[in-house]
Amino acid sequence: MTSHGFLGALYVALCAAMIAWDILMAGRIAQLRRTPRAFQAITGIAGLLLVPALVVAYTAQSLLYGRAILLVAWLWPFTALLFVMQTVYALARRMVTPLLGFPLLVYNTVIATVAVTKFVITRGQSPAEFGLALNAAQASMLGTFFGTPALWNPIYLQVPIFAPSLPARWGFTRLARVALAGTAIAMTALVIVELPGAYEGIRSYAAHSRDQLQEHPEGDFTIGLKIFPDLRSGPPPLAIDYDLALADTLNVGAISIVVDPEAARGVALDSLARSIEETRADSTIIIVALGYPKKGDKEIKQSREAYTVARLKDIDRVARRLKPDYLIPAVDPFEEGTRVLGDQTPQYWIDYFTRAARVAHYIYPRIKVAVPISSYGTRDSTLYAWAARRGSPIDVMGFSLLAGFDGARSLDTHMRVAQRWMRMYPNPKEHWVFAAGGYPLVHGEQNQERAIWGVLAWATAETPIKGLVVYEAGDYYTVRGLRAPAGRLRPATGAILRAETGLRSSAQ
Q1: Which CA distances in Å does 163 have to 15, 244, 299?
Q2: 211-507, which class in CATH?
Q3: 508 pLDDT band (50/70/90 cuts)?
Q4: Would you say the pTM of this structure is higher than 0.85?
Q5: Domains of the chain: which residue ranges?
Q6: Which CB contacts under 8 angstroms, 24+ apart, belong to 107-110?
């Protein structure tokens, strides 16, 4: 298990304990007649709604369920506010010691503020800067446990805690209260520590609102769109309808698809091939990236060679059935790959990409095999240097340029590093930006637009870069799409349309 895997499991265990505590506390308070009726009502309703509200908070952020759930999306912020009211009531009536009550009040207030902020964002409105910064700070805190998925996975939430307004019956209960209070204090402290950096991160996007795209009179720059969720089976019918329609509306020149090994065979692969047939006939560039299996860490630990051979067979099937123009044999090896498989050496990935390129070129010599770069550290530098040299079997170099926990600051750093690497070679190979985007539910929809526009401006100014793929068409299991769960198109869609119009005008 990776360090994030262990910390994530610990966090989930803590959340489960908090939920159990809240339900137990609500039941006890509801049974005591001497407890004020208003306090009983607030605690009982909040305890009853907690689990449904958590489920709604997660499912409402997916296009697959959002339209059915969005009508009750208010349930999570409403429930979080009830927890704040319960804590305030307990403190005001001196039903809980201030030493315990005030930390719980701050903790619950943070959760409620973030819940309301996200609700405002889902309605297409701009929240207050403080709420947005607190939202970003909470995501950074969750990133301590879960890594970068805390930016785009809506399942990572904080669970509010009832103020313990009843005396503890046993020593174990008293110890549990101290532990829960200590956990709440620690999480609140982590959020507050992240708050100054979160403010800077939110404000860092503003500089990109003034960026200008570079003209391409030769028409040699392509804007693409990543469609469908990462596929472990055939593409969902809703995704086919929505994403292909959006690609047509934006008139993009390329579509990108991530196929996990579970979907790289049989009926799922045939279904995917049929869904993109019309797009292929329209001369749209097809980019296919191979993802990672659900239990990839166990597979590679059992036998690294067996895992590699299995992925090469997946590449064989994908190349034969989908016939992509660009093939990425592994998504972001030193970021997503490390998260799923654990640390693998640059030499392992060099060997893997060499063998993958050999398989793909044997099946269809015209397929361009690409290596994606995403972490911009020493290991990615080694992989880039190998792939970029003329003797390597790699045809295309690619960058992933997504915003980070610190907003556009790390994004700007990565663009400078990528620029330096490209200029090390006098006649560089073809380059792409295979992933560009932001996180609308964490940093706001306007900042998502600025992140995409900033990367577009940078990419169009770099001669080796021939295209950019926007991540991604819609919110399915990741909240970073152009289409929100209600079906509404986010402002970033307009930025892409402007970019397409400007590039086409310069090419005429």
Answers
A1: 16, 50, 45
A2: alpha beta
A3: low
A4: yes
A5: 3-206, 211-507
A6: 107/160, 107/161, 107/184, 107/185, 107/187, 107/188, 108/80, 108/83, 108/84, 108/160, 108/161, 109/84, 110/134, 110/138, 110/158, 110/188, 110/191
